[in-house]
């Protein structure tokens, strides 16, 4: 390759190669899409005093749903929405979503979240299919809280509660604690 | 010459298990024929957490839509428990296009008792006298006094948790200590007591789940998913409770993979002599003989077997001189109700997963009370809870603070879901569809069944009254609704071989014995002459035990 690459492009190439190796098992998502989802889901549910969406492997779960669960129409809508994230990112800060700073990425998500809330309050919500961001937010929640790390560390889900406490203090973590 | 058993029981579910227990305990060599596969407690999956399931509980929906498009309509046919429901292609039935009916079925040892709803409510004379008083269909040939000792008998063995209320329309039973209402449910209970004293009552569901160790089975550990099985045997089903007792007698032969095709009839003796079976695996035809036969195959399957057993003497189905066999199909109409958000202690939440809800017994058209514009009545199931992480989908924001906010429980909500009585109607019926066979070459049923005006009037009233009760409890965002469920969805189908006093208008007598053929008994939901509004399984079980007692006596007296 005779053309000199900019540092950004080199970084991008490196990240993309890295992702392709890490995510070689994805069935629908390409490396770029997978890497974007990894960042998006982890912005929605980040690691705090408990692990976040990244540790829970939410992106892999989304890939499974895209491959085996969603109807073609919904799958295509999700993937198109994911592509639109880059379109919006380039409009907002002139780069693909992945190349933005965490601040730029967060600002874009704030905009998506506001738009989703406005959609929910609009007559559209009773008619049209859900926008991409609402699909993403729901599947991130579901994928996280039904994962082992999410269910056990964040939710304190007890497989065998052992008892039913009808009126426990609201901050009770689990029936065994 | 094949061995002749004392008794053959067709089906190993709710009632088949009871027939097996009662008949073997009485010393009868009993063959139980089960169409499906054997299962054991090793098949139970209630403790498999979502993260060990491929779709985390979202189910393998494409496979389900392909293999079980009908069964998947049942709430319990999920990623864990779908294996307890039949494959719809192997087990077809037909309907008219504008009369959908959901036949939700389990074919395995234990039948649908494996994933039943476990709610247990006695009937009263309000129910047994209803047909007579309303001049509808035929009078029940029994009254509460006839069945009460058998309710006791069955309940003592099963173990029923519940609260005694002293209500005439919902007799108390042999109860273990009740499960607890949570503080949201206490709010609504108190509001009903204040606004409708002596009329509307909210109590904890009476259910076949142990709150104390009982008969060698352990108290519930509140994992919450009984329909997936229970390794501690805490809820009642055949394989947890009745079949093991039958096995211990040494008198039980249980044969899975035995799809009953029809019954054999001995015209000379006017007796059923045995059963024609198609082996579920090899598809070979086999015959078994017995002195007495109990059909416990489920309302629709028992009717199908009798209809497929037509002879020159019974051209329209065995034991069908009345012409009522297959007719009067009923299922509880369900789904008139309301939801709302209630004001309950914000600093409290329920912990643990109670596999039971609340119950509001019937309060319409009671003896001596005001009469509604509709006949009969309905009861509600439901409950209170606090929203969890799922509310995050509509909670604005994301990130660390948003994640932390989801740790707190959300609003208290409350739901009431009505179950209404379905009137018997001769025009709701099943027949053999000669154009179609199941996977074992047996002609299938064509089901003709729709709800009538009275059923829909009940649900309309149930919806309005539910909203009214939520309003009285100070609820907000009250949403009344009527689910337009097709019949079958409540899985309380009944009535294809009704009991009655007159052989000309009913198939079975007061002992669940065929009027036409003395050694033939049908003790599943087929026998029901009306539906009441209570969940029916406990009544089927009590009638089964009662019929077994009679049959054993009649055999000893050489009457059959």
For the largest interface, the chains and their residue counts are: A-B, 48 and 48 residues
Indicate the CATH class of the largest domain in chain B.
Alpha Beta
CATH architecture of the largest domain in chain B: 3-Layer(bba) Sandwich
Helix content of chain B: 10-25%
Count helical runs of chain A. 8
CATH topology of the largest domain in chain B: FAD/NAD(P)-binding domain
Radius of gyration of chain A: 19 Å
- Biggest sheet overview of chain A: none
Instruction: Pick out the low-confidence regions of chain A.
Output: none
Mean pLDDT of chain B: 98
| Oligomeric state, counting identical vs distinct chains | heterodimer
Secondary structure category of chain B: alpha/beta
Category from helices, strands and their pairing of chain A:
mainly alpha
- What helical percentage do the residues of chain A reach? 55-70%
Number of helices of chain B: 11
Overall body shape of chain B = globular
User: What is the string of SSEs of chain A from the N terminus onward?
Assistant: HHHHHHHHE
Strand fraction band of chain B? 15-25%
Question: Would you write up a description of this structure?
Answer:
The complex is a heterodimer of chains A (177) and B (560). Chain A has one domain. The longest helix of chain A is centred in the middle third of the chain and has 22 residues, at 72-93. Chain A has helices spanning 7-22, 31-44, 53-56, 58-69, 72-93, 102-121, 132-145, 148-154; one strand at residues 165-169. Chain A is mainly alpha-helical and 177 residues long. Chain B has helices at 14-25, 61-67, 125-128, 130-134, 144-158, 183-195, 238-248, 299-307, 400-405, 453-472, 537-556; strands at residues 4-10, 30-33, 94-95, 160-161, 175-176, 203-204, 252-255, 258-266, 271-279, 285-295, 333-342, 348-351, 358-360, 378-386, 412-420, 429-437, 443-448, 476-482, 520-522. The longest helix of chain B has 20 residues, at 453-472. Chain B is α/β, with parallel strands linked by helices and 560 residues long. In chain B, 55% of the residues are buried. Chain B has 2 domains: 4-115 and 236-329 and 492-523 and 544-556, FAD/NAD(P)-binding domain; 180-226 and 333-420 and 451-482, no CATH class. In chain B, the strands form 4 sheets. In chain B, strands 1, 2, 7, 8, 9, 10 and 19 form a 7-stranded mixed beta sheet that branches. A 6-stranded antiparallel beta sheet of chain B has the order 6-13-14-15-11-18. The mean pLDDT of chain B is 98. At the A-B interface, α4, α6, α7, α8 and β1 of A face β12 and α9 of B.
